[in-house]
């Protein structure tokens, strides 16, 4: 970690920006939000209704209910399932008040639905490992929140879908070599699944059960994702997810720089 003694200007700027409190509008929104009903502002001209787990849903969750398989498919060591949610925690993971949260596909890695398989991916930016190590060094817990409806959709190829997605995540974690926590929402879209982004169920489970009882400081945490409702984006799920939670939202290029430009090692 000696390289962190003299942080580059870009890294210093990112950290300084992340340490700023969210603006007063987001602060008020966060104070008034309840776990069971979150209504973020309108985006791209359409009302946004964000699903969430109710207090009763959260109370029903217990660790013993988690399974080492998912609808008949095997899960690798370290992975567990609950309802339509898959969860992984690295052995050396530590709780933190600060969460550095990321989407996976299109944010940390480049993948393509036409290229299945655990090895069919590459880092989207050459400095992903460096940046993740930087945030880990600064005391953030690294968490990935990702949707993967193929796991539910491919009923006859569910094991292959699980092996593909979880294999890619393992590949990323092997390369970055920093402890991470991963939440995968397997539910299909338009089914009212409270885990699938922009629904905030994954974050609620993290806060209530997967941070060793340590309260999360949302104003010091942030979320990075590529689905921001821009022209060409497949959705606004990431920006709506962050907005509903009162988290600072960043695009991948805000953190990692241009793919071949500033921010690369």
TrEMBL record:
Regions of compositional bias (Low complexity) in chain numbering: 32-46
InterPro entries xrefs: HAD-like_sf (IPR036412), HAD-SF_hydro_IIIA (IPR006549), HAD_sf (IPR023214), PNK3P (IPR013954), Polynucleotide_phosphatase (IPR006551)
Domain of life: Eukaryota
GO biological process: DNA repair
Gene3D superfamilies: HAD superfamily/HAD-like
Pfam families according to UniProt: PNK3P
GO MF annotation: an example: polynucleotide 3'-phosphatase activity
Region feature (Disordered): 23-46
PANTHER family found in the cross-reference section: BIFUNCTIONAL POLYNUCLEOTIDE PHOSPHATASE/KINASE, BIFUNCTIONAL POLYNUCLEOTIDE PHOSPHATASE_KINASE
Name of protein: Uncharacterized protein
């Amino acid at each position: 970690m000696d390289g962190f003694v003299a942080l580059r200007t870009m890294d210093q700027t990112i950290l300084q920006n992340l340490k700023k409190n969210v603006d007063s509008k987001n602060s008020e929104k966060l104070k008034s939000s309840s776990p069971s009903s979150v209504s973020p502002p309108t985006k791209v001209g359409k009302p946004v209704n964000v699903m969430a787990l109710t207090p009763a849903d959260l109370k029903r969750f217990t660790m013993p209910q988690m399974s080492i398989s998912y609808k008949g498919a095997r899960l690798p060591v370290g992975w567990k399932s609950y309802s339509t949610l898959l969860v992984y925690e690295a052995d050396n993971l530590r709780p933190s008040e600060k969460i550095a949260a990321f989407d996976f596909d299109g944010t940390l890695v480049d993948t393509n639905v036409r290229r299945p398989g655990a090895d069919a991916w590459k880092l989207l930016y050459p400095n992903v490992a460096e940046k993740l190590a930087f945030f880990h060094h600064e005391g953030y817990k690294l968490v990935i929140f990702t949707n993967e409806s193929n796991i539910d959709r491919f009923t006859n190829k569910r094991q292959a879908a699980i092996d593909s997605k979880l294999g890619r995540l393992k590949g990323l974690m092997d390369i970055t070599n920093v402890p991470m926590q991963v939440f995968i929402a397997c539910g299909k879209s338009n089914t009212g699944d409270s885990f699938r982004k922009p629904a905030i169920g994954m974050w609620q489970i993290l806060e209530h059960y997967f941070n060793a009882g340590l309260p999360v400081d949302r104003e010091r945490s942030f979320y990075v994702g590529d689905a921001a409702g821009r022209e060409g984006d497949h959705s606004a799920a990431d920006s709506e997810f962050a907005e509903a939670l009162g988290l600072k939202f960043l695009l991948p290029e805000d953190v990692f720089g241009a793919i071949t430009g500033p921010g690369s090692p």
